[in-house]
Design brief:
This is Diguanylate cyclase/phosphodiesterase with PAS/PAC sensor(S). The chain has helices at residues 2-5, 8-30, 72-82, 85-105, 124-140, 157-161, 165-176, 193-198, 208-212, 218-233, 246-254, 271-283, and strands spanning 39-47, 54-65, 68-70, 112-115, 151-156, 180-186, 203-206, 237-241, 259-261, 269-270. With 284 residues, the protein is of the alpha/beta class. Bound molecules: ligand C2E and calcium ion (3 copies).
């Protein structure tokens, strides 16, 4: 009887209420996720599309809460709104550095790519904290050299939009230390291509939404072609993300794109599987 009497307005009201409750719940548990050891890093290999060889890997955060994986698509925005993303980002970078060093020690040095939220660059204080944190990892692990050259930071276009010269200074300082900067989800933001000219970056990642459209025909392929030729002109390397099919891979190869990430080759995997895979590749 209740369902019958409900009008649209009540229905949507309920939905909004449920969503708000879910957000509040996630936020509550997210606060304790680090101390409860609920986070884990997965690694997704990035390969040479011609040889299949693993050339680097993206680090992807996983949250196992009460026996269930909660998607980063859900919890990262909540972490960003609440500011928890700063501590979470630091946790991710510590673990990634630990892994990079471990790989080095096993004679499997491989660059790791880390996602960074734009929130972490939002103020001068946060920028300073971001830089200092690398020094604190170095101290914590008593490292004589810090593996900056094995790390890439993936940022999004919205950072480029922030017309703030000190973000350029920060990125330049990070590159001076040896880190690479990659523009993630390229083409999905509102940035104009001209931002790229003035922005200190090394690499772009073509968003998977463009890769998905390869099958839809020439007009969609033309977009990827344009991104690739522009990247060449600006001397940026290119990664194609979300490659799932043979047809997508064939087109990527035609475009001479030198790095590919996607389910066609590998899904993100736990660290142990990743280490095993690398060891196997090395023994081939
Ligand atoms: P992203 O940075 O664009 O990461 C790539 C996403 O695409 C990952 O989703 C990955 O699992 C997925 N993916 C890779 N290959 C394929 C494919 O062939 N097909 C399809 N359909 N998907 C593919 P994931 O791991 O769920 O992460 C989602 C987003 O959450 C990431 O998107 C990133 O924006 C954010 N994220 C993940 N880890 C972190 C982190 O440590 N810090 C921050 N700030 N954000 C993170
Ligand atoms: Ca990414
Ligand atoms: Ca991406
Ligand atoms: Ca994304």
């Amino acid at each position: 009887a209740k369902a019958k009497g409900r009008n649209c307005f009540e229905f949507f009201n309920d939905k909004i209420q449920q969503a708000a409750e879910r957000t509040a719940q996630v936020h509550l548990h997210l606060k304790n996720a680090i101390s409860n050891n609920e986070f884990e890093l997965f690694y997704q290999p990035i390969v040479n599309p011609f040889t299949g060889q693993i050339i680097k890997a993206e680090v992807l955060l996983r949250w196992l809460h009460d026996g269930q994986f909660i998607s980063p698509e859900e919890f990262i925005p909540i972490a960003e709104e609440s500011g928890l993303i700063v501590q979470i980002g630091e946790w991710v970078r510590t673990q990634a550095v630990v892994c990079a060093i471990e790989l080095q020690q096993r004679q499997l040095p491989l660059p790791l790519s880390i996602n960074v939220s734009t929130i972490e660059f939002w103020s001068n204080e946060l920028q300073q904290r971001f830089l200092n944190y690398f020094d604190s990892i170095q101290q914590q692990f008593d490292l004589t050299v810090f593996p900056y050259e094995l790390l890439t930071l993936e940022i999004t276009e919205s950072l480029m939009m922030k017309q703030q010269s000190n973000i350029n200074l920060l990125l330049e300082e990070l590159r001076r230390r040896g880190l690479n900067i990659s523009v993630d989800d390229f083409g999905t933001g509102y940035s104009s291509l001209s931002y790229l000219v003035n922005f200190p970056v090394d690499q772009i990642k073509i968003d998977k939404s463009f890769i998905k459209k390869i099958a839809q025909g020439e007009r969609h392929k033309a977009i990827i072609e344009a991104i690739v030729s522009m990247s060449r002109a600006l001397d940026l390397s290119v990664i194609a993300e979300g490659v799932e099919t043979q047809a997508e891979l064939d087109f990527i190869k035609e475009q001479q794109i030198d790095a590919v990430q996607g389910y066609y080759f590998y899904k993100p995997m736990p660290k142990n599987d990743f280490l095993t895979l690398l060891a196997e590749q090395q023994n081939k």
